[in-house]
Specification:
Length: about 500
């Protein structure tokens, strides 16, 4: 066939497929949700991208990977408990920094792009697990979800947990339904990757063990398949295993302390379970008024328990995870539950979907979904509030320091939190004026201190400043809302 004829033939096929597809309301619905989801994740993007201490640290590490300077075997420490994650996130997101020519906006752009893929993936996975109707409701909830939108608009290791959680859950289901070795291996790999994004992903391990035992009771499943799952999980996490062996099981000890150390007068597991479920509803449904939150949580809990009694497996998985959260006694932030949002939205979708076929069902579902959009839209700050380009600001500060540092060996820190200086350190490193590493014992010959609030750097007990022992401020500048001080001994 001639090239012209081949092109014409393919064009006709695509045209026919599009004509047929746009007559399908589900196809149109998914396309519309994809367009809306893209808008909600990219509108006013540079002005609302978070670029703080964690993002600056990650950008430095990824930059050093791309320049072949250092290849980390462990990831970032958790914000509470100092438990180190795996290094997967750094390597996975690195191509986006290279694609944007080392502009850290590329890291956030990569996360946002993956979240768009997540919307599409949500529909196909939910359709596979349930039906098209449930899948469309599920995709709708994912598209407008405030926590998922917030997580998609900047770069941070927990932000990809919803994506990898859904993929992990899918391969777990495939492994049980189609007991082939490859699905157990894939389930193990993606579980390990999820855990490297956030340790609460470990709660999917008892879920998978329950899946396996439940299926084995009803049908023959080879125990060797479960071995393949845990073996692949272990291999992917091998860098962390080696790290723990070399450091007297530091990670395991800190992790046990993290989940068992009470933060109040008593570690009440039942209370923790109720608190976790309340937090899940508060964040996933964006219900902030306490009386309404309690009422809604009780209503949802009733329907969940009904499905559990009916032995609906997905709801049993949800309950296992919520009970697992009861072991954690600390405060739950919205990003902690990133791994759980997909399963929770899926369960809610399966509760709503059958109502459509009942009298007044479509009207009721429409009202509920419209209310969901309105409640969530109230927290779309990027639609109503002025933004602040933190990347641009960090770049301006770094140029000022570059032009005013007179020695090669100098320190940079910030008050009150020293790691807030890492975004500026990133650009200084790009400019070839790398400051001394934070926590280094090298005193340095000059020091720059960044303050977003009123501070007195001379005499401050912060480690970096106390080590440098400054005697006076020789210069100071103001860039945006940051005061910059130059200190000498």
């Amino acid at each position: 066939m001639k090239p012209e004829a081949l092109i014409q033939s393919n064009y006709s096929r695509v045209k026919t497929w599009l004509t047929k597809s746009f007559k399908d309301p589900y196809f149109v619905g998914v396309v519309l949700l994809l367009i809306i989801g893209t808008f909600l994740r990219f509108y006013q993007f540079p002005n609302f991208v978070t670029f703080l201490g964690d993002q600056g640290r990650d950008a430095i590490i990824v930059k050093r990977i791309l320049t072949f300077e250092h290849f980390p075997a462990i990831g970032a420490p958790t914000s509470y408990g100092q438990v180190y994650l795996g290094p997967f996130y750094y390597y996975f997101i690195a191509p986006w920094l290279l694609l944007f020519n080392f502009n850290p906006l590329g890291l956030a752009f990569g996360v946002a792009t993956i979240s768009i893929f997540f919307i599409l993936l949500s529909y196909f996975i939910a359709k596979h697990l349930y039906d098209r109707q449930t899948a469309l409701i599920f995709t709708f909830l994912i598209t407008f979800s405030v926590p998922l939108i917030l997580l998609s608009r900047f770069s941070w290791n927990p932000n990809l947990a919803p994506v990898f959680s859904l993929i992990t859950f899918y391969f777990m289901i495939k492994a049980i339904r189609t007991p082939e070795k490859k699905y157990f291996v894939l389930a193990g790999i993606f579980t390990a990757l999820l855990v490297q994004l956030h340790y609460l992903g470990l709660l999917l391990l008892p879920v998978f063990l329950y899946m396996f035992i439940h299926k084995k009771i009803k049908a023959s499943l080879k125990n060797v398949n479960l071995l393949w799952f845990y073996l692949s999980f272990l291999i992917v996490n091998l860098p962390l295993v080696i790290f723990d062996l070399r450091h007297d099981f530091l990670n395991i000890k800190n992790f046990i302390k993290l989940i068992t150390l009470p933060t109040g007068s008593e570690n009440n597991v039942i209370g923790n379970i109720f608190s976790a479920f309340m937090s899940l509803n508060k964040f996933s449904l964006n219900v902030l008024w306490l009386p309404l939150l309690i009422l809604l949580s009780l209503i949802v809990a009733y329907f969940i328990l009904r499905r559990v009694v009916q032995k609906d497996q997905y709801f049993i998985y949800l309950v296992i995870i919520i009970f697992g959260l009861g072991l954690y006694s600390g405060q739950i932030f919205f990003h902690y539950l990133g791994f759980l949002y997909p399963l929770y939205y899926l369960c809610i979708s399966s509760l709503l979907s059958p109502m459509i076929n009942k009298s007044y069902g479509k009207l009721l579902i429409s009202l509920l979904l419209i209310s969901y959009v309105i409640i969530n839209a109230m927290n779309y700050d990027f639609l109503y509030k002025p933004g602040f380009d933190r990347i641009k600001s960090a770049k301006k500060i770094s140029k000022l320091i570059k032009d005013n540092v007179t020695v090669d060996n100098y320190r940079l820190t910030a008050l009150p939190e020293k790691y807030a200086a890492t975004p500026v350190s990133y650009f200084l490193e790009l400019y070839g004026r790398r400051p001394i590493e934070l926590d280094s014992i090298d005193q340095g010959d000059e020091m720059f201190v960044l303050c977003e609030k009123k501070c007195k750097p001379v005499g401050d007990p912060l480690y970096d400043i106390a080590l440098f022992r400054p005697s006076k401020i020789v210069n100071e500048w103001q860039v945006d809302n940051v005061k910059i001080y130059k200190l000498i001994r």
